[in-house]
Amino acid sequence: MAERNIIMGKAGGTAGKHSVNYKISLPAEMVKELGVTQEDKCVLVSFDDGKIIIEKKSLKLAPNNSVIVLSDKASKSDERKGD
User: Shortest CA distance to 45 belongs to which of 65, 25, 74, 16?
Assistant: First the structure.
């Protein structure tokens, strides 16, 4: 477990006047252990029972050319149209 501060900043672009964005730095060892790389950096973020959960996202192409999104640890999958 690592202790971190959440970085809060004013949102830019077309965000509302009082919008705020939130960021946190993750320890490199944890990110490497998830299998995140510069080429494959997509993760799934969820909130459950007061905890923020970050999981590595895996993609699989189905026979009908839709993309199936699989988490390495989650048992659920999400389908969406491919390119």
Answer: 74
